[in-house]
């Protein structure tokens, strides 16, 4: 299905214009802008923006952290980071002007990126200053004073800032200042990530949710008082169904079933944090009610998950609420401080895990090594690095693998962790798992 996303871009006009220009490459988005002169205005702009918004894109980390508490809970938010390519471009411009690398005062960028770049271009001996508390609330005037003081004390020769308002102020004072700007690739990469997440969220919001309420009598006999309370409780649950815009309500054997969408449910329960409705029901009546919630891509799968979730809630005691999602993860008891989530494992999952470990052991035997990285496993076993990381994490927990160091820094990118595999213990583990599978098959025949 075609998904259209509403994106709001927040930042100073020059940076917002650049972001909007790149955003025109994505035909599934509608763009609005919130422009400020000083970064401190960003939170107020977000608070006063009442239009429906799927994604907020900030021109940098500073406006994001200032506005974080004002963002709507259901919206996705990203900021465009200042990373390697942005800093390289700045240093190229500085070198073009000075034909050397002067002492620079930076702000609002990550120290590791800066140190790594200085090391890579061979200027670690050149000192620099960095104001890098990007998660703190930024004071533009204080930041201007910070840079000017360093310049007046002749500790630095050039200023490089990420904030347009600071850049404009310093330029008016005729100081040697450069604005660190995002590369088009960095903007495009952030937009792609945000749009992918936005599409995923929209699809999830369209998923079906089934809520099954089971009324339970503490007395053995279902007397007139029980029946009367059930009718009152039924009315309240159906009223709650209207709050969820539930388009179908089924009542059978003291079980009330409501159907809605995930988006409506998440909003009504404050992202599954608010189940005061269920608590109030159980406090109001002597009849207790349990709730099972199921999420699925179809009404049938959601109903199946809700039925199983209801059984979980009844097993845990009266008045409980559990949820099973589309990936068969169990969440609960919801509405309490002790809520946890875990996956419902079955024999198929166990067999798949065992098959993966046998494949891993066979691959290690072929290449005749016991030292590997996630990247090597990914290439050798034709799988993702994330899956490779899960394999190694599992083996580390079983004391079959352990971390022994990192790759040589001559490799491209950041060095990866190197793991050492105990091949003898791995072989034992694989053989034991295989024997368990055979015994399981035999017992089922």
Q: Which structural traits does this protein have?
A:
single chain, alpha/beta, Rossmann fold, Alpha-Beta Plaits, 4 domains, 4-stranded parallel sheet, 18 strands, disordered C terminus
Your description of this structure?
With 445 residues, this protein is an alpha/beta fold. The chain is built from 16 helices and 18 strands. The chain has a 7-stranded mixed beta sheet. Strands 2-1-3-4 form a 4-stranded parallel beta sheet. Helix 3 links the parallel strand 3 (55-58) and strand 4 (76-79).
User: By CATH's scheme, which homologous superfamily of the largest domain applies?
Assistant: Reverse transcriptase/Diguanylate cyclase domain
Number of self-contained structural domains: 4
Beta-strand content estimate: 15-25%
Count of strand segments: 18
Report Rg. Answer: 29 Å
Alpha-carbon distance between the two ends? 45 Å
Main sheet: strand order: 10-11-9-12-13-14-15
- Describe the main β-sheet briefly: 7 strands, mixed
CATH topology of the largest domain: Alpha-Beta Plaits
Alpha plus pi helix count: 16
InterPro entries: Rev_trsase/Diguanyl_cyclase
Protein name: Transcriptional regulator
Secondary-structure topology with pairs:
Layout: E1 5-11, H1 13-23, E2 29-35, H2 42-47, E3 55-58, H3 61-67, E4 76-79, H4 84-98, E5 104-107, H5 111-120, E6 128-131, H6 140-152, E7 158-161, H7 164-172, E8 177-179, H8 184-205, E9 208-216, H9 224-243, E10 248-252, E11 255-261, H10 262-268, H11 276-284, E12 288-296, H12 299-315, E13 321-324, E14 329-332, E15 340-343, H13 347-367, E16 371-372, H14 374-380, H15 385-397, E17 401-406, E18 417-421, H16 423-444
Parallel strand pairs: 1-2, 1-3, 3-4, 5-6, 5-7, 7-8, 12-13
Antiparallel strand pairs: 9-11, 9-12, 10-11, 13-14, 14-15, 16-18, 17-18
Helix pairs in contact: 1-8, 6-7, 13-16, 14-15
InterPro entries: Rev_trsase/Diguanyl_cyclase
Protein name: Transcriptional regulator
Organism: Peribacillus asahii
């Amino acid at each position: 299905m075609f998904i259209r996303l509403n994106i709001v871009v927040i930042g100073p006009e020059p940076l917002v214009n650049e972001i909007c220009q790149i955003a025109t490459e994505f035909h599934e988005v509608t763009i609005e802008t919130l422009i400020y002169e000083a970064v401190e205005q960003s939170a107020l702009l977000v608070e006063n923006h009442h239009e429906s918004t799927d994604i907020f894109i900030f021109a940098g980390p500073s406006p994001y952290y200032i506005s974080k508490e004002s963002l709507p809970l259901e919206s996705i938010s990203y900021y465009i980071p200042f990373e390697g390519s942005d800093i390289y471009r700045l240093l190229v411009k500085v070198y073009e002007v000075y034909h050397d690398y002067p002492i620079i005062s930076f702000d609002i960028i990550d120290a590791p990126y800066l140190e790594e770049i200085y090391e890579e271009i061979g200027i670690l001996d050149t000192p620099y200053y960095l104001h890098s508390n990007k998660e703190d609330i930024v004071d533009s005037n204080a930041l201007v004073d910070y840079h000017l003081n360093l310049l007046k004390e002749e500790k630095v020769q050039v200023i490089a800032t990420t904030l347009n308002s600071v850049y404009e102020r310093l330029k008016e004072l005729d100081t040697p200042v450069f604005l660190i700007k995002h590369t088009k690739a960095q903007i495009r990469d952030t937009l792609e990530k945000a749009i992918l997440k936005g599409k995923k969220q929209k699809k999830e919001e369209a998923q079906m949710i089934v809520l099954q309420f089971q009324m339970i009598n503490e007395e053995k006999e279902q007397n007139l008082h029980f029946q009367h309370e059930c009718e009152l409780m039924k009315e309240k649950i159906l009223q709650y169904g209207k709050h969820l815009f539930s388009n179908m309500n089924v009542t059978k054997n003291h079980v009330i079933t409501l159907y809605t969408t995930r988006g409506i449910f998440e909003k009504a329960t404050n992202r599954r944090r608010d189940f005061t409705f269920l608590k109030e029901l159980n406090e109001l009546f002597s009849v207790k009610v349990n709730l099972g919630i199921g999420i699925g891509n179809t009404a049938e799968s959601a109903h199946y998950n809700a039925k199983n979730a209801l059984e979980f809630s009844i097993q845990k005691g009266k008045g409980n609420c559990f949820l099973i999602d589309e990936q068969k993860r169990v969440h609960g008891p919801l509405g309490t401080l002790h809520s946890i989530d875990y996956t419902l494992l079955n024999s198929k999952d166990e067999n798949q895990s065992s098959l993966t470990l046998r494949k891993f052991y066979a691959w290690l035997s072929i290449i005749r090594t016991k030292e590997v990285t996630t990247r090597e496993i990914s290439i050798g076993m034709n799988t993702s690095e994330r899956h490779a990381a899960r394999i190694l994490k599992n083996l580390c927990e079983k004391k079959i693998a352990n971390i022994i160091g990192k790759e040589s820094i001559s490799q491209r990118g950041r060095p990866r962790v190197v793991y050492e595999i105990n091949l003898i213990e791995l072989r034992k583990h694989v053989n034991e798992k295989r024997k368990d599978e055979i015994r399981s098959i035999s017992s089922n025949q």
